[in-house]
Amino acid sequence: MKKILIVGSTGQIGSELSVRLRSIYGSDNVVCGYYLPPFPNGFFEAGPAEEVNALNIEQIAQVVKKYKIDTIYNLAAILSATAEKNPKLGWDVGVGSLMNCLDVAKECKCAVFTPSSIGAFGPSTPKDKTPQDTVQRPNTVYGITKVLGELVSVYYAERYGVDTRSVRYPGIISNMTLPGGGTTDYAVEIFYKAVKGEKFTCPLKPGTFMDMMYMPDALDAAINIMEADSSGLIHRNSFNVTAMSFDPEMLAAAIRKYIPGLEVEYEIDPLKQAIADSWPNSLDDSCAREEWGWAPEYDLDKMTQDMIRALKQKL
Ligand code: AKB
């Protein structure tokens, strides 16, 4: 049975990945590492939880040794728009957390999952059906840390035998923990407004297409790539994965099928618009499908129905 440490277990992905990993591997085998003390909700109390600052290598090493961890999910991140406002923080967290996890993994023989992103592409990348292997010249600090992360993870795999694996996540849509400071956050925020019957102010122009994915598929991607038979993997760091591509108007239309009164106005955020314009419209994820059987379950309509159902219960 794997022994897992999640660094960043209270964030958008971490809070749901913790629950899923504990249901698969057993509560005692999944240590939730948190930076800010978690809100007591019964979940953290159900298994081990430890304070782990991703920028403190001693703290990571101590927890890895204490619990005999063999797999680290490194989810500490500053998302794209926040990183552009504070590039030093974006760099320090993006690069620092990864290097700390890789160095502990090298010493303690752990496998490491670190998400990359569609942000690892830039304005000179082919925009439609972006291939797995293509130009990666991002013009954001977030993207630069993601490209560095992909390359240094390959380096640690080849030079030191660390089992590093990763996927390039698109925008992730979820109903438990809100994302914060990302360019794709609008695709979550619109659902909260729609369910509350409020008007949504969209920060991106109509016609801004980006890849997206519903959280259950994002969790499957992280777990399945770590479980994949390594003999089938030609790539490792990092796989294109996607589930849908839409622009704000398509998303609003999908929601209006169930909440016809949704009103959307546009107030463009120049920073987020520039970042979104530099990213692909849609990814080609055929390598992930062929090499480890990636197959998302949720398309735009299925995700929309489930988001509205879940948020109606929650709100
Ligand atoms: C962001 O918008 O910064 C993230 C991402 C696509 O990596 N959601």
Report the mean per-residue pLDDT as an integer: 96
Oligomer: single chain
Going by CATH, the architecture of the largest domain would be: 3-Layer(aba) Sandwich
Number of helices: 11
The secondary structure category is alpha/beta
Total number of domains: 2
Largest sheet: 6 strands, parallel
Q: Ligands in the structure?
A: 2-amino-3-ketobutyric acid
Task: Give me the strand/helix succession.
Answer: EHEEHEHHEEHEEEHEEHEEHEHHH
Please state how the strands of the largest beta sheet are arranged side by side: 3-2-1-4-5-7
Q: What is Rg?
A: 19 Å
Number of strands: 14
Portion of residues in beta strands equals 5-15%
**Full CATH superfamily name of the largest domain:** NAD(P)-binding Rossmann-like Domain
Terminal Cα separation, in Å? 37 Å
**Low confidence ranges:** none
Query: What is the share of helical residues?
Result: 40-55%
Give the class-level CATH name of the largest domain: Alpha Beta
Question: In terms of topology, how is this protein built?
Answer:
Layout: E1 4-7, H1 14-25, E2 30-34, E3 49-51, H2 57-66, E4 71-74, H3 80-85, H4 87-108, E5 111-113, E6 116-117, H5 141-160, E7 164-165, E8 167-169, E9 171-173, H6 186-196, E10 200-202, E11 210-214, H7 215-227, E12 239-240, E13 244-246, H8 248-256, E14 264-266, H9 270-278, H10 286-292, H11 300-314
2-amino-3-ketobutyric acid is lined by residues 79-80, 117-119, 142, 169-171, 182-184.
